[in-house]
Amino acid sequence: MKRVLFLAAVIVGFSLQGVAQDKKQQDKKSIKDMCGCFKVNFKYTETFAPEIDYEKHLDYTSGALEWAELIEDENNKLSIQHLLVIKDTMVIKHWRQDWLYENNRVFHYDKDNKWVFTELPKDVVKGQWTQLVYQVDDSPRYSGSATWIHADGKNYWENKSDSPLPRREYSKRSDYNVMSRGNRQEITNYGWLHEQDNDKIIRETGKEDVLLAQEKGYNTYVRVPDEQCKAAKDWWQNNNKFWAKVRSAWDKVYTKNSEIELAKAIEKKPLFMHFYELEKKNANEKEILALIQKFASTKTTENASGK
To answer: Minimal CA–CA distance to 68: which of 235, 243, 229?
Structure first.
């Protein structure tokens, strides 16, 4: 009887392991489905404010052609670099998203250009994927861990995470300082959808967060033939080695510290503008790291936690 029970337990164990592996492969397929050439439409509208005298800001809409290239494809890590294509020929390095399986180290945006790294319990992230989003210069933006859902014909991942102000408002507004992002990324029959339910937050040290307004974001990525993004593919072919050095330099900063605070500008230029010069001369990793360290004030603490 004991032998029968043991064999049954082994069979169940192998069966569960197989189900987990099948699920993981489904997850990876969904992430990879966000790669390719897309016509993107960005739409945002403010929907609610708790104060009756709040003056709603104008809706924001824009569009672009975007190339999303899979630059890392490992068992527990996928990385996608996004590139904007303007007027068919001009290419702008855009955001990057890394996906890590059962990862327990994430960064949280606090405020005032400061990020805090924290450790999540391993049992909490079991079966989950962390999405880590980086800015155009590969500095941190936001991250969060959640489970990819595949049910009723839908494939999506959603999470709530704090971030700096979006670039569409970064230089225009000072009435709030943190965006609490509700992100939902869903694979669709036309490509994929990035749906957002965002809170615009006023955050001060030692005080409760104050909600200024809420907004809805609806960004559609409609797949088009890859040939339409040829300019971006060629640009990445010529520049990917430099940006690999940038990622390597940033990794040295991320792995050693539990807090990072970035200067907004040095010599009246933000970090991404300084990278233009380094990219032009194909700087080495040592030079890249030296630039990052000029901007980044770091701190190592135990048991750091973020809001």
So the answer is: 229
Q: How many CA atoms lie within 13 A of 83 on its CB side?
A: 27
Using DSSP bridges, classify how beta strands 178-187 and 154-163 pair: parallel, antiparallel or unpaired: antiparallel
Classified as helix, coil or strand, 141 is: strand
Number of other CB atoms surrounding residue 122 within 10 Å = 10
pLDDT tens sequence across 151-208: 999 999 999 999 999 989 988 999 999 999 999 999 999 999 999 999 999 999 999 9
Reported pTM = 0.90
- Burial (0-12, 13-18, 19+ Cβ within 10 Å), 125: buried
Task: Spell out, as residue ranges, where the chain has pLDDT lower than 70.
Answer: 1-18, 301-307
Angle at which helix 230-256 crosses helix 285-295, to 10 degrees, equals 60
Q: Which of 212, 214, 220 is nearest to 195 (CA)?
A: 220
SS3 content of the chain, % helix, strand, coil (to 5): 30, 45, 30
